[in-house]
Amino acid sequence: AVEAIVERFPGIHTACGLSNISFGLPARKFLNQTFMAMAIAKGLDGAIVNPLDRKMMANIVAAEALAGKDNYCVSYLKAFRGGLFEF
Length: 87
Fold this sequence. Notes:
Elements: H1 2-8, E1 15-17, H2 28-42, E2 46-48, H3 54-66, H4 74-81
Helix pairs in contact: 2-3, 3-4
């Protein structure tokens, strides 16, 4: 749906309430993280997320880098150097 909206209305910004996608399902955090990365790849600009969820924030930074939304991966490198990623 995100891709269709972005194509139909060029220049529009998109956002979603992320937790709605996984309501009632097990492993909600995992589903939300995966959905977020996929939605960013399709053109999602923002979402209502818990900014204290380090894994979610790391996934967002990585997805934006891979989707070409982070010029020269500046935000990704800054997040990595700042210790955002957990391995």
